[in-house]
Design goal:
Layout: H1 3-23, E1 62-68, E2 84-93, E3 96-104, E4 115-124, H2 126-129, E5 137-143, E6 154-163, E7 166-176, E8 180-191, E9 194-200, E10 205-212, E11 222-230, E12 238-247, H3 257-269, H4 282-296, H5 306-326, E13 330-337, E14 341-347, H6 355-369, E15 376-383, E16 386-394, H7 395-402, H8 410-419, E17 421-423, E18 432-436, E19 445-457, E20 464-476, E21 482-494, E22 512-525, E23 528-538, E24 541-550, E25 557-568, E26 575-586, E27 591-599, E28 605-615, E29 618-628, E30 634-646, E31 652-654, E32 657-660, E33 662-672, H9 697-701, H10 709-714, H11 716-726
Parallel strand pairs: 14-15, 19-32
Antiparallel strand pairs: 1-2, 1-12, 2-3, 3-4, 4-5, 5-6, 6-7, 7-8, 8-9, 9-10, 10-11, 11-12, 13-14, 13-18, 15-16, 16-17, 19-20, 20-21, 21-22, 22-23, 23-24, 24-25, 25-26, 26-27, 27-28, 28-29, 29-30, 30-33, 31-32
Amino acid sequence: MPPLFRYLLKTILLVLVVTGVCHGLRQSALAEDNSPYPASLALQGFSGILNTPSAFVLPEGTLHLMYSDQMDTRWRNIPGFWQENYHVAVGLFDFAEIGGRLTSTPFSLVSGGVRDLSASVKLSTATFTRDIPWLPALAVGIQDVGGGSTYLQSRYAAASMDLWRFRLSAGYGFGPDRMKGAFGGAELVLFDWMRLLGEYDTHDTNVGVRLTSPPLPLVPVSLMFTAKSTVSHKPGNIDIAAGISIPLDVREWNRLVVHNAVTQQREKSQPENQSVPAGQSARLVVTNQQEVRQKTAPVQQISEPVTKVVTRQTADLDKVQRELEKAGFINLKLGQRGDKELVVQYENIQYMYNELDALGLVAGLVCRAAPEKFDTVTLVVVRKGIAMTAISAPRLILQGYLNSETGSGRQELRELRTLLTITNDPQLDDVMIMQSTSTGWVPPVQLTLAPALKTHVGSEIGVFDYLLSLRPEVTVNPWQGGLLNARWDLPVAWSKNYNTNEPFSFQRQKPEMDRLQFTQAFKLLPSLMLNIGGGMLDHSWYGSMNELIWQPGDGRHRVHIVQSWASGEKSAKDKSLYLGSYRYNLPELDLSLEGTGGRYWNQDEGFSAELKRFFGDVAVSVYYKNVSTLENRHIQAAGLQLSLPFTTRKNMRLGPVTVGGTDEWSYAQESQIVAKGQANYTNPYTVGATLQNSTSLERSFENRDRLNTAYISSHLERIRDAWLRFRPQHQE
């Protein structure tokens, strides 16, 4: 990177950080409680002081990005030498963090230099020992894991303790490249936005200052700036680092404090027809509602003609249907089972972050507008015309939870969980349908506009090479379970190594349609789904793609089988893909572990393992691949993937066409694991690859693997959050 550009980048980052810090000066005050203050990234890419780690880890569910110009002690005396460090780290759990680092120095294939992509891992006991007085937190970690060229590798153990405004840390490093021996240091928290830092890192004595801004006004990201000087070597030399901390959970971006206060005040001044009376619990209302109806129901209702009763019931359900249609739901059916249960079937085509957003809005609208005679409501979730899940609950219990004025509604949530019924086998045979969508059937059309990004980071060819494309995608749902999908790939911008006759030019396609296929899904059993299809699968490859998912019980276990065959216009050889996988899910932790084996899309064979954790709607995955390629090369690789909705929380609807971004956009960065002394090799294709298909069962029907009993029952808070956010701002 040219020196002028580096200095310009430093200036911009410094201005941003100082702006953020100044914004928080008025409100800054050290939190005087027993909880530890959050850890921050050190200049080496792990959480710690300057060059040494502490025994704490980054806050859970936060993504940290940082740039630093610090030079390693081995190279800082070389005239004209420079070093740039780019760090990314994620607080994966409250006891674990993972990170990646790109280090670049002046480099050429002839004279050498350093261009190193590495990973780091740290585990801490802090979350388990925080309530034990005088017991320090302990941590172990490793930096620069794997790879044939290790320039910054270190293994370490550390201990830390908070005393008043001091955080004291000490440990021992086992090298072999850096931190060999005992190290120690301290952080002094002057304010919650300013820390003074000092340490001995086994080679130098360093001092510094770290400034951290509060969350910015419009987006809840925090900015960080660190300045460091080495006391034992050229004290006048200053190294800097600048970065940001980003919460991954969308709830951090959309706090409801102000919104809740407004809606609660409105509810108090204009009580809803079906709201629970003040001071009376939802359970008490349910207990006495039958007695109240017996006292207030007119006696002559029993002897009314059937036609008049049906007419009145139909009129009562008209209001429910109007509310749901106005909110954008389609494929509506309203009816009753018995005398006391209202059944509402709906399909969501607008709320693309999470199907629970739509469920929360439907639940609130139905509870508010439903006739008083119904004690129970059953909501049937439809995806692409197929009824996937049914949720039943006492109406007033559900309404009391959705409109609770007691903070998070924990008491109402406990009541709802004990009475809620969730099934993946919706049955409508015994339901008397009273209302349905009145307009003529028009197939739903989804227009998706999203980017695609290919990168090569820290390769022997370049520091950072990229190919940015726009991928418009049209999906039509003509009938139940049937999907017609067309996608175009339009390259927009790329680095010079993607130019014609350059090393990565083979990965840049001309603007063209790269997918045209039809798929048909069937729900064979409540826990078994089949998806078959074919067409243009990827650029010039034509064939079939079929998959089967078995998800018994509450959805914690899943078996997934994928099979494909394809023939290429530009290849004499056909492709055959067959993969089997098993996934175990812990929805209480938003955590899943999946193992996959077989033959992948590029005909490499082997297995892979993935640990995935959701933070709201953003998923962070750590994965490992072990395959043999067509060239008989054995490759092991590990990587980090980020998957998130690249769209607004509610897409725009223009008649039958819904326009928005994609519900899942993924970016992954991986590195080969090779024996020491071996050089990394840039493969001509991605190993362990599968086709990322938007019409797959997982995305089109399973809500990104989140439409099962275990997940829904563990995330009822999301339903209430959606109702409070999207509820109509009018009363009828």
